[in-house]
Batch of 2 targets.
Target 1
Amino acid sequence: MLQDGYAAVSSRSVAAKVGINAPLVHYYFPTIDDLFVAVLRRRADANVERMAEALASEEPLRAWWRLASHPRGSALFVELIAAANHRPALQAAVGDYAREVRRMQMDRLSSLLGEYGLDPVELPPALVAAAVQGLAFALVADQVAGHDTATDEAHAGMDRLLDRLEARRRAGSAG
Amino acid sequence: MLQDGYAAVSSRSVAAKVGINAPLVHYYFPTIDDLFVAVLRRRADANVERMAEALASEEPLRAWWRLASHPRGSALFVELIAAANHRPALQAAVGDYAREVRRMQMDRLSSLLGEYGLDPVELPPALVAAAVQGLAFALVADQVAGHDTATDEAHAGMDRLLDRLEARRRAGSAG
DNA sequence: GGGAAAGTTGAACACGTGTTCCAACTCGGT
DNA sequence: ACCGAGTTGGAACACGTGTTCAACTTTCCC
């Protein structure tokens, strides 16, 4: 799926990949949509867990960013989101997942922004959450597509920004 | 394409849409890839122009944001980017376009960040550009997919943030 | 061991796809 | 009138798709 895009996923192609034949994948996943939804759910559940850990960790923002900007993980979600475009069942599942994660992030941010020295009025949680996620997606998407859009610079800039923010939070909690 | 996703675009479907039949679309666009590339280029050229205007306008950041967060425009690009996944020719064209736009944005930002009272060291142009674009994409994508991820809140927050930034720039240029 | 349940397969159906070939048509210029 | 270039349409090819069906094999329980 990461190699050839979601469009290359068919009952026969995945059957060949795992050494069985087509009808058997329909035995386990009656519909191809079911297959996609299962893949999404598996990955989504794992990610919700990891996101919870990240947000509860020592350096929440950095951990969140590391998770969000992880190439393989995000690339798969990009693919699934694209596939969801014309697959209502998958689209609904993606929506559920997006809503859950977004809620987690916003809840945590509401108490976290102050610690990082950010004004929650100037930068509301909904905006920060969407920005972090969107930025990560943009960078990952450009990276996997091979577009040369200064992603290195952006990544480096984000790392430095995180250094400063996490330092500010440490200083605040210490003082 | 916006209704049914890029996967619904076939020689026959577009032929039916314009009241001709399939071989004729191959007469004009020998390959379906050519069709996609043509659509991309048309839209991309228009967008490059609009982006140039936006960046040169009275309130560059707000204009940029308005352009980037425009639902129909961005939704089409989301679709094209997804389609590009397994269409090398289209992918290359998307890359060219992304690179051009990103360069425009970064060039302008390098002289603009200071005017907005932002530190170009703390927030390098590459990061800001990717963030704006990524945020817009995330919001538009969630919106068109119907995911309820507090996009209203995020939009409102961004509007207020832009108000403050543009005000700051006005004040700076006046004083 | 027997029989039921679970698992697995080959063949096929109907369909939509990109694309090609060729015949037909339109239409402007001479 | 006619001819040639540009344009359009019908039919078809080979292919991959989702899915179903009936048959076969394996596994497991009694």
Target 2
Amino acid sequence: MFKRVSNVANSPTDKICETKCSDPHSGAAGQVVPLAMGKAQKMGEFFNVLSDPTRLRLISLLAEEEFCVCDLAIQLEMTDSAISHQLRALRAARLVSYRKLGRQVFYRLHDQHVVDLYRTVHEHLEE
Amino acid sequence: MFKRVSNVANSPTDKICETKCSDPHSGAAGQVVPLAMGKAQKMGEFFNVLSDPTRLRLISLLAEEEFCVCDLAIQLEMTDSAISHQLRALRAARLVSYRKLGRQVFYRLHDQHVVDLYRTVHEHLEE
DNA sequence: CGAATACATGAACATATCTTCAGGTATTTG
DNA sequence: CAAATACCTGAAGATATGTTCATGTATTCG
């Protein structure tokens, strides 16, 4: 009993609060397993892309229509470079697509799913 | 024409790419306004809380049932302190509620909305 | 072709973030 | 009451992040 099962990271002095899940390996009833590390990492990275104000403002514009980098920079009153860096992050997360037209690059949201998520949270915070 | 309207932050040498939004103040047709700075900040903070793997794993557990701090620490194989710090962040964001029972504190998700958002994104990343 | 424009990129710097460590409070138990 | 337990908190250190600056590439135009 009270085995901590190689709980390496825990405090030096093992404590005893076995409310309902003392030994995860005892095939008890309420088997609740946390999200796996890898998936938690991926999911965190996804939310992290949405955690920057500049990127959210870009998304708010692209939710309306397509824009080239320069216009985005003008509307947000930031340098082309800063915008380009952030668009790079949005591209890496596959949240935006783009098409080249001459020397301009027009960005748009990759799919409706992003817009839905954005609007859902936007409304949720309007309280 | 070509007024940049106090575009202080932009590059030193003003450039000229007036695709469709040169002067936001000219009451033109496609009036697209970015998300306000303040709201973008708030929204970013919200997503930021969900951008940490540990907090997401906590949410994944609390989506199933109520847990005390110690049990959460055991399941995630982390120190009570680390968990407590993260629960503090989740509390500040009003994502979790808690009730004290003796010397234990049981946490639960504040409302179903969080669970919905978590599950939506979770499924979205399962591709 | 050469200059200007539109965009991308790497390095650097300042700032933010997360875990650990060392304590501190409150409740329970012997 | 004293010790142990459950949890909280501030400071510190390592790491991650975002903007700026300087530069590079590609396209257009004179």
